Amino acid sequence: MSDDSDRDELVIAARRAQENAYAPYSKFRVGAALRFADGTIVTGANVENASYGLSLCAEAAAVARAMNEGHRGGLEAVAVIGSGKKPVTPCGRCRQMLFELADLGATDPAVWCASSEDVEQVLLSALLPRAFGPGSLD
Ligand code: THU
């Protein structure tokens, strides 16, 4: 598979996940897709709450799902898509959660940040330099 079709497949998976976003308060719908070295794709969407501060981001939902499906490392690429005009870059908490999963397998995943109009690539290490992670506790 070429890099482009890898990217397209992951962005399409994130867009499909976005359809399940529960975002009645912000109306900002986000989908995320994680691709692992074994080819598995795990997705999530944001889940808001009437108690606004409890809202869960799409990336956090996808990381929690992946962990619960037994993934520990092997994170090769991430796609995030939002309903705004500009590509969504993961929030700080999501960067940290993605880092933990990636660090378990010592990868530095490409993060495809998308909107319906644009897709931009950035490495997780650029989004979260000098990250605090499992090794920081040694
Ligand atoms: N959101 C995400 O799902 N991921 C991000 O990286 C940024 C923000 C969600 C949280 C909330 O439901 C909505 O977008 C507006 O902030």
Mean pLDDT over the full residue set: 97
- Uncertain runs are none
| Name of the CATH class | Alpha Beta
Compute the number of structural domains: 1
CATH-derived architecture: 3-Layer(aba) Sandwich
Largest sheet: 5 strands, mixed
> What is the CA–CA distance across the termini?
39 Å
Q: What fraction strand?
A: 15-25%
Shape, per Cα inertia axes: globular
Strand order of the largest sheet: 2-1-3-4-5
- Hetero groups bound? tetrahydrodeoxyuridine
Fold and architecture overview:
With 138 residues, the chain is an alpha+beta fold. It has a single domain (4-127), classed as Cytidine Deaminase, domain 2, CATH 3.40.140. Helices cover 31% and strands 22% of the residues. It is built from four helices and five strands, in the order αββαβαββα. The chain has helices at residues 3-18, 58-68, 92-103, 124-127; strands at residues 30-36, 41-45, 75-82, 110-114, 119-123. A five-stranded mixed sheet has the order 2-1-3-4-5. Helix 2 (58-68) runs parallel beside helix 3 (92-103). The model has no long low-confidence stretch (mean pLDDT 97). Tetrahydrodeoxyuridine binds at residues 23, 26, 28, 30, 46, 48, 55, 57-59, 88, 90-91, 94.
List keywords for this structure.
single chain, alpha+beta, 5-stranded mixed sheet, 138 residues, Cytidine Deaminase, domain 2, binds tetrahydrodeoxyuridine, 4 helices
What is the gist of this entry?
The chain is an alpha+beta fold and 138 residues long. 31% of the residues lie in helices and 22% in strands. It contains four helices and five strands; from the N terminus they run αββαβαββα.
